[in-house]
Amino acid sequence: MRLYSYWRSTTSYRVRIALHLKGLAYEPVPINLVEGAQKAPEYAALNPGQGVPTLVLDDGTILTQSMAILEWLEESYPDPALLPTDAAQRAKVRAAALTIAEDVHPVNNLRVIARLKSMGHSQEEAVSWMNDWMLRGFTAFEQLIAPGTAYCFGDTPSLADLCLVPQLYNAHRWGCDLSALARLTEIEALCLRHPAFAAARPENQPEAK
C-alpha cells in the first residue's frame, strides 16, 4: 500500500495511526500541501478533491477521504477493532469521531484558513477562528465519550481516539486553551504512549520540518 499524506495533516495522522495499530506496512508518499503539491495533475488524477490522505492499495484501488479509509481498514483488517460489536455502541463511537471529523476539522483546514486570509482576515483572526471551533467541538466531544474509561470508549483505542489525538495536535500548535478539558488531555497522553500513535506522530514522519 502507498499512503499519500502531509506530515502535519490531521486526516493523514488518523490513517497513519490506524495502519500502525493494525500492523500494516505501507509506503509513505509525502504531499506538501503548503507548496501546493496536491494540485499537481498526477496527484489530482488520484484524488480529484486535491486533499490528503490517499491510500493506493496493492491492486491499484484508490481510496480517498480519511473516514472512508478508516472504515475500509476496519472492515478489511478487523483486529484490533476500532469499533465495538454492539450496533448502538458503534453508533456512539462514530458520533464522537464525526464530531471532530465533520464539525471541527472542515472549518480548520488549510484551504479554509487561506480563504479567510484572502478575504482580509489577519493571522491572529484566523487562529482565533480555529481555536473557537476546536474548543466548541472538544467540549461536545467530551460529553459524548464514555465516562471513566482509559481511552474514549474503553481500555483500547477506538475510532474516536484516532480522530481526537490529531485534532489535539492542532490545538496545541495554535495555542488553544484546553485547561477545562482535562479528560481529553489525559486520554491524549495515554494514546501518545502507545507505539502506534507514537509512530504516527507528525514529528516522526520522514519529511517533518
UniProtKB/TrEMBL annotation:
Superkingdom as given in the UniProt entry: Eukaryota
Gene3D superfamilies in alphabetical order: 1.20.1050.10, Glutaredoxin (3.40.30.10)
Organism: Cyprideis torosa
The enzyme's E.C. designation: 5.2.1.2
Record has Kinase as a keyword: no
Annotated keywords: Phenylalanine catabolism, Tyrosine catabolism
Catalysed reaction equations from the record: 4-maleylacetoacetate = 4-fumarylacetoacetate
GO biological process, one term: L-tyrosine catabolic process
Name of the protein described by the UniProt record: maleylacetoacetate isomerase
Family of the protein in this entry: Belongs to the GST superfamily. Zeta family.
GO-annotated molecular function: glutathione transferase activity; maleylacetoacetate isomerase activity
Pathway, per record: Amino-acid degradation; L-phenylalanine degradation; acetoacetate and fumarate from L-phenylalanine: step 5/6
Gene Ontology, cellular component aspect: cytoplasm
Cofactor(s) of this protein: glutathione
Pfam families: GST_C_2, GST_N_2
InterPro entries linked to this entry: Glutathione-S-Trfase_C-like (IPR010987), Glutathione-S-Trfase_C_sf (IPR036282), Glutathione_S-Trfase (IPR040079), Glutathione_S-Trfase_N (IPR004045), GST_Zeta (IPR005955), GST_Zeta_C (IPR034330), GST_Zeta_N (IPR034333), Thioredoxin-like_sf (IPR036249)
